[in-house]
Write a structure and sequence with these properties.
mainly beta; Type IX secretion system membrane protein PorP/SprF; about 50% strand; Porin; 1 helix; 16 strands; 14-stranded antiparallel barrel
């Protein structure tokens, strides 16, 4: 029964976190280095085919705490005109007895806006399947015949997402909607709540401070227009185009000014992030999130690592640096 109570508490904490940030989607602190996780129109931004791996352990120190692992690959189909891009994204998200896995195929059409090919406007579409599972064996009840004990749950849903993404060498702005049409394909158990559409607005820029130091501020607003939205404010310093050091402040924003979610918009966290460009095609990143809410009493923060590998084509090409 203690185990059952523990996982029930985890589920409640997870639900509270999702409400406070108005999302039923996975969360990453280093999203700005792999925009495909929040916007299908990001596919092909780096032009070269790029593999991204990321792993996040949330609420370290709590047994059964959320774990999220993601792998993605994207790039342009034709290196000559670079108008069409594809991206593939797979994610596994765990929280106590919950184990959710998703697969998305993304398509982006990239409009060239100038002769120098420094400005692109991309329109993206993603389609995928999400499997929601609850493993009843994770519960350890005193009376296994108790009809109130949760059984195994398995639901498969189809999902779609849309996005638009505008970039120049030193600026970007994007908008996307995830969970656009989430419908059960099989299962449809009552314990699995149908995800609601979530919108994302992102923007950022790179500003040169000197010949060797650049600053990169960025903002992301995410929400479903019902519960408090999530606001991420991030600033990086880039040293010699190699080392990124930054910090992010994440908070809830009650856009509707409703008392229904009073207090949930106070779930704040601060993140320290470091990224290192090992060479022109390999990047490694680490971030640590520290919660400033009451939850910090029960856990020791959130750890996240990421790795990016670009597959450069043999023919030499002159392209502008990819800061985003």
């Amino acid at each position: 029964m203690k185990r059952l109570k523990k996982y029930s508490l985890l589920l409640i904490m997870g639900a509270a976190l999702q409400n406070s940030y108005a999302q039923q989607t996975v969360q990453f602190s280093q999203y700005m280095f792999n925009g495909l996780v929040v916007n299908p129109a990001y596919a092909g931004y780096k032009e070269d085919w790029t593999l991204n791996l990321s792993s996040r352990l949330q609420w370290a120190g709590i047994d059964g705490a959320p774990r999220t692992n993601t792998i993605s690959v994207d790039g342009v189909l034709n290196p000559d005109n670079k108008n069409v891009a594809f991206g593939f994204l797979a994610t596994n998200d765990r929280l106590g007895p919950e184990n959710n896995t998703s697969f998305y195929a993304n398509y982006a059409y990239r409009l060239r806006l100038d002769d120098e090919d420094t400005k692109r406007l991309s329109f993206g579409f993603g389609a995928g399947l999400v499997q929601y599972r609850i493993d009843a064996s994770k519960f350890n009840a005193n009376d296994p015949t108790d009809g109130g004990i949760i059984g195994n749950e398995n639901t498969l849903m189809a999902d779609f997402r849309l996005g638009v993404y505008y970039t120049t060498p030193l600026f970007y702005v994007g908008a996307s909607v995830l969970n656009l049409f989430s419908k059960p394909v099989s299962g449809g158990n009552t314990l699995v709540i149908n995800p609601v559409p979530h919108g994302y607005l992102t923007t950022g820029a790179v500003i040169a401070l000197s010949n060797t130091i650049d600053i990169k501020p960025s903002v992301m607003l995410k929400g479903d227009l019902k519960s408090p939205a999530g606001l991420d404010l991030t600033t990086y310093l880039l040293f010699d185009k190699k080392l990124w050091l930054g910090a992010s402040y994440n908070t809830g924003v009650n856009l509707k000014r409703s008392g229904q979610y009073k207090g949930l918009d106070k779930s704040n966290s601060v993140t320290g992030i470091a990224q290192f460009n090992i060479n022109d095609f390999l990047r490694f990143g680490y971030s640590y999130d520290f919660s400033t809410s009451a939850l910090s009493t029960y856990q020791s923060g959130t750890h996240e690592v990421s790795l990016s590998l670009s597959f450069r084509r043999k023919q030499p090409r002159v392209i502008s640096p990819r800061f985003f």
